[in-house]
Amino acid sequence: MPQSTEKQTLGFQTEVKQVLNLMIHSLYSNKEIFLRELISNAADAADKLRFEAIAHPELYENNAELAVHVDFDAAARIITISDNGIGMTRDEVISNLGTIAKSGTKEFLAALSQDQSHNANLIGQFGVGFYSSFIVADKVTVLTRKAGLSPEEGVRWESKGDGEFTVEPVIKPIRGTEIILHLKEEEAEFLDEWRLKTIIRKYSDHVPLPVIMKKKEKEKEEDEVVNKATALWNLPKNEIKDSEYNEFYKYVAHDFDDPLAWAHNKVEGKQEYTSLLYIPSRAPFDLYHRERHQGLKLYVKRVFIMDDVEQFLPFYLRFVKGVLDANDLPLNVSREILQQNKQVESIRAGLTKRVLTLLEKMAQDEKEKYTKFWSQFGNVLKEGPAEDQSNKELIAKLLRFSSTHTDQSTQTVSLDDYISRMQAQQKHIYYVTAESFAAAKNSPQLEIFRKKGIEVLLMHDRVDEWLTVHLTEYQGKQLHSVSKGKLDLDEVEENKEVKQEQEKAEKEYKDLVTRIKETLGDRVTDVRITHRLTTSPACIVIEENEMGLQMQRILQAAGQTINQAKPILELNPQHPLVVKLNEEHDPVKLNEWSHILLGQSILAEGGHLDDPAQFVQLLNKLLM
Ligand code: ADP
Ligand code: MG
């Protein structure tokens, strides 16, 4: 007998076992979402069938009224969810209900902690899916038959959620999938008509598939459509309640939480489309995962076409969830077609503007909400100026930073705030980049700025390096790193005397500078006197056109070989150490001091020493 006609026992993939374990043991609240997930799968199955049937109408088998039925039998303690959607073949059953194809499963499992409520949230973000059946059931039976196959090619799948499942052939006359949940004793509360209806209306009201339950009336049984089954995005805005927007979001995004904001728009005229775009309130755990599912649900003239369509939004807005229903795209549109379609480009431009405008409005009118948004997605938005030239100015307006004005790691300062506080003669927007907030905040290069009361943006996210490469100007003001090039504070330095003093210092220390430069040899490109320091004896900077030190470190950490720019050592002529050094004539001492000054300047800037042991030795020698 060929294998496929026998009953087979197979093991779940390891990740499935872990997810199942979680479902069974950690999800105490929100148990009712199992129904949302199973109805959502039925709706997906109906969508897939509708899509396939565009080219192959015979797949409907004279039964084109797609719906999902929810029934229960209190005595037998079972709930049945049956659809007449696309169904599954034996191979599909084995792979779909035995493995998890989703990217980022490993990261998801790694992100789980002891904290149950935190876990419940993560599970929500992950999309609990079919396996959520085991939250309430101790045994699940699936009967399914793929559209287009004969009734004998049905499949029966069964599992107790304990690591194994069985598959065997079954005769299934009706196309589609039937899920039978054998409820745990303690979950009997779900065996109740009113309870089930409430759950369906709560989570699945706007799932575009009728959810039908039997209604007993005077000995007669009648079918009742429990949900509205209308595509929410097609209703006029003023007929939609906030709570409906919220629940629809949870269906689209598989999220537990309400969204932070949404934009619902109908565009008419040359091009016609409706979009309902949501900003989630929390970043998903896999936001930085390369193969993560992202993008919109695409419909063409109300027919579902596909999920996770990335082409309609730029990558830096990948956190946006929602639906796009386009009237002018062909029904047989594929991902390949989408990649080169002119209409797609113009819809994408339109949607991008919508999201940016929504954020701009939030930033203006709901500051607290915007701060929440920024804490979750700010780092992604910072990728914007590099990716999207055409909206650079608008994105820049949305950026938030830490700065010496607030001295807080929470990023709340906008470039407009900064400009409004600029000093009369100040021409540039100054910033410093470092590996951490503390390193940025305490950077020696800031000393002169703090003294003069000039604000400096404190950038301490990895992406900031990319950002500053691409965002070099805002509102006609150049962005300028405080650790690059010669410091030219002329613009805020009206005092002639100060200037003369500096020139005097440069003369006075000319000899010392030359000697230190000789001593340090090729560890530095130059040594010079600076006036950017007030309390530190020395600091390192790099040439104007060189790659930032922080960027060098990021690239090196990523395994790239780069031409490491050697730093310039700058000395503070006011500092007692430097004053003392100017009187030091012992070449051995001068050598030791020079290396110590360079070493501490590198450390203060967040860098790594090539020979830390030697630095420690020198230091100890001085301390003795
Ligand atoms: P997701 O829906 O996010 O893909 P699920 O765990 O909910 O994850 O479902 C896993 C897969 O099982 C689905 O992608 C689908 O291929 C298949 N599946 C689940 N339920 C059905 C159904 N009612 N009809 C057809 N296929 C289904
Ligand atoms: Mg699902």
Comma- or semicolon-separated keywords:
Ribosomal Protein S5, domain 2; 9-stranded mixed β-sheet; 22 strands; about 20% strand; binds magnesium ion
What does this structure look like?
This protein is of the alpha+beta class. It has four domains: 8-225, Histidine kinase-like ATPase, C-terminal domain (Heat Shock Protein 90); 232-373, Ribosomal Protein S5, domain 2, CATH 3.30.230.80; 404-491, Rossmann fold, CATH 3.40.50.11260; 494-623, Heat shock protein 90, C-terminal domain (Four Helix Bundle (Hemerythrin (Met), subunit A)), CATH 1.20.120. 38% of the residues lie in helices and 19% in strands. The strands form four sheets. Strands 1-6-5-4-7-3-2-8-9 form a nine-stranded mixed beta sheet. Strand 8 (211-217) and strand 9 form a beta hairpin. Helix 19 (510-520) crosses helix 22. It is elongated and about 105 Å long. Bound molecules: adenosine-5'-diphosphate (ADP) and magnesium ion. Magnesium ion is lined by residues 37, 40-41, 129.
What is the total tally of β strands?
A: 22
Trace the largest sheet across and list its strands.
Answer: 1-6-5-4-7-3-2-8-9
Radius of gyration: 32 Å
Backbone structural class: alpha+beta
Task: Give the CA-CA distance, first to last residue.
Answer: 87 Å
CATH architecture of the largest domain: 2-Layer Sandwich
pLDDT < 50 runs, ≥5 residues: none
CATH homology superfamily name of the largest domain: Histidine kinase-like ATPase, C-terminal domain
Total helical elements: 23
Give the helix/strand layout.
Blueprint lengths: L7 E4 L2 H13 L6 H23 L12 E6 L4 E6 L6 H7 L8 H7 L4 H11 L6 H4 E9 L8 E6 L4 E7 L5 E8 L9 H12 L6 E7 L2 E6 L16 H12 L7 E7 L5 E7 L16 E5 L2 E7 L11 E6 L8 H6 L1 H24 L1 H15 L2 H4 L4 H7 L3 E2 L11 H6 L8 E5 L3 H5 L5 H6 L3 E4 L3 H8 L2 E2 L2 E5 L14 H13 L1 H11 L5 E4 L8 E4 L7 H9 L10 E4 L4 H6 L5 H18 L7 H12 L1
Parallel strand pairs: 2-8, 12-14, 16-17, 16-19, 20-22
Antiparallel strand pairs: 1-6, 2-3, 3-7, 4-5, 4-7, 5-6, 8-9, 10-11, 11-14, 12-13, 15-17, 18-19, 21-22
This protein binds adenosine-5'-diphosphate and magnesium ion.
Adenosine-5'-diphosphate binds next to α2.
